[in-house]
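Checked the freezer inventory, then went back to the computational side. Two predictions to log before the end of the day. The first one is the construct we discussed on Monday; recording sequence and tokens without edits.
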Amino acid sequence: SSWFATWPTSGGSWPARKGRGGAEYPRSVISLAEARAHVFERCPGPVVSEVPLSDARGLVTAAPVVATGAVPPFANSAMDGFAVRSADTVGAPLGLRIVGTLAAGAVPDVEVCPGEAIRIMTGAPMPDGADSVVMVEKTAVSDDGAVVTVAVEVGEGNHVRSAGEDLLPGEEVFASGTALGPGHLGVLASIGCGSVTAFRRLRVGVLSTGDELVEGPAALRVGQIRDSNRPALLALLDEMGVVPVDLGLVVDDEDAITAALLDGVARCDAVLTSGGVSMGDFDYVKVVLDRIGEMRWMQVAIRPAKPLAFGLVEGVPVFGLPGNPVSSMVSFELFARPALRAMSGHTDLERQRVQARVVGGLKRHADGKVHFGRVVVEYRDGRYLAASAGGQGSHQLTAMATATGLAVLPDGDGVADGDLVEVILLG
């Protein structure tokens, strides 16, 4: 998108830094557009599969779907009432002789002749001779059940669903590239599709590393923190419709990290790690990924989420996201989510972006980077309003949790109260 391409291309550079394995990690800062292009160009394309209809919600069709029969397959009643000859209702109110009853699923075995009517239920096939239905609210049945009084005149086809009114045999139902929602699945079921040719649902693994990380309710020792990144990233994956795979929490040990990453790429279509990608990090993750994969270690001109690693391990994309909780989630939104959507066959990769009026101002400092401010967005009186969600530090996850948007803040002093700002809507 052009809004990425226009962002700063650099924010300065420093000498390359050597990692534990001797690999060099460049410290030049690149643009968001360059970083995204690097990621998208290297991610593999979607994989076509025949998917059971029960598992197809959210997937993208990989081939056109064509109707093999008519929908509805036969003319049927759209109302509970009486099937009649429309000509017999001229001059209503008048009485017609009841000659039968048709329930949904029944096969008509009586023809409607002049002066006759058949009681009919919604969805029941239209009997021979009848060309219209009078809804039950416009009728009255005699005490002996032999005669129905029709209160209104009706025209031909009144409350009748014609055969093929929705779909005709050979008609394209959905084009290739259609994202399947609940309604689409209902249509596919209506034409007898038990499965659909679609791009396969991705399996994406999430791995956390670090001796300082723990999980569970036990009291923390000095220097320990609870792992919040993995649960958040797994939930973001679940929200976008891929299959999240928990690869666990791994200590800072090269063999353990190697085993976890190789396990992940063996059974996932992509892997996310968090932590170990910053220039000052204790770099076991860097050493392992440089040894087993083809990685690029980037510093992107954005805040939060400046550090990013990306590459392929045995052909599987690995996203090295930053360790700070907010940075991890913002990096996911900017890099992993759109790339994974592309790998799933989607063409609309980005979340919705809107122009919002700032309430209270959104301050920042000039540093050569684009900032993503966590904001609460409200739609009121025909316009979007955006206000700060709270603390903007990359460690302040509570504000990220309450945020409903990311305000795109160009380099400078921020956006004043009442000014417009571009916002990426979340959720």
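The second is the one RB wanted added to the comparison set:
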Amino acid sequence: HEVFIETGAGLQAHFSDRSYVDAGAELVDSPEALYSQCNLIVKVGPPVGEELGYLQEKQILISALHLGGTTPDFLMRLMELGITGIGFEFIRDPDGTLPIVRMMHEIMGSMAVQVAARYLESDEGGKGVMLGGISGVPPSTVVIIGAGVVGEWAARTAVAYGAHVIVLDTDLSALRQVEHFLDRRITTAMANEQYLRQAIQSADVVIGAAMSDGQRAPLLVTEDMVRAMKPGSVIVDAVIDQGGCIETSKPTTHSEPTYRMYDVIHYCVPNMPSNAARTATYALTNVIVPYLIQIGEAGSINEALWRNAGLRNGAYVYRRHLTKKSLATMFGMPHRDIELLIASGI
């Protein structure tokens, strides 16, 4: 197989162009040139802006879909070109795990707490407190909304800092599980309005980690709840890629990562793992390369999808059809079952 990579693609993760050449890749000067000569495009985020014009008919696109920013126009563009789109968020192995999502969410959960600790400091306009207490001074309170993988790893990191950690979720079994993993070193509560309001009002940090696989994140924290938070508190909405679970959240950028609302610092940067680019590169490589090799060895994307349930689950557009029911429901669009499409040869 021939592998092409854009010049400079690895620099911010401290991988030189030379390291890719030594591994057998061929450097390409621009995204346009890369799209023009590759059958399979692999990237972290979905194509945006000019990139949409670079897409070629019947290409295979593997990337995160970022449900919070997905539009019907984007999906229609892919379908018009007959592109096979496979989303990180949907790749589910036969054992029920979402391998790429889990890997990225472990990073997101840990980073959310690191970010919050920084923005609590006086230099960043925060309350000027530490997450962990010291002798005679109690620790900060970290409230985590959601007990999935992001919430679990946020809780692990916050506990390691020495913070007082409260985890809320609408799923009692998820709360039991995270409590078991952390040996009851956290407080758990059902995410009903009463408990949410009480916890958030007492919080120094709120981590938004509530999400549903393959769907938009549920909106659990209202603007009124945020308004009642203490001045200088910090919100990190770690699921902003899926639309966010806090009403006052809106996507920010790495160059301007925060804004203040009701004197609460909001950090809502999509694709948080890119701030730990080297760690994220290794993590993503470990999970995604086996799928790429399977696609190459299968000889065609049709055969690869038929053989591999994880890839088949990951496909959201295929042969000019939308194949994800959750996306069809979200946008009021028709969809077709991918197994029937493959079997029928449509």
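For RB: The radius of gyration is 21 Å. The mean pLDDT is 92. Let me know if you want it refolded.
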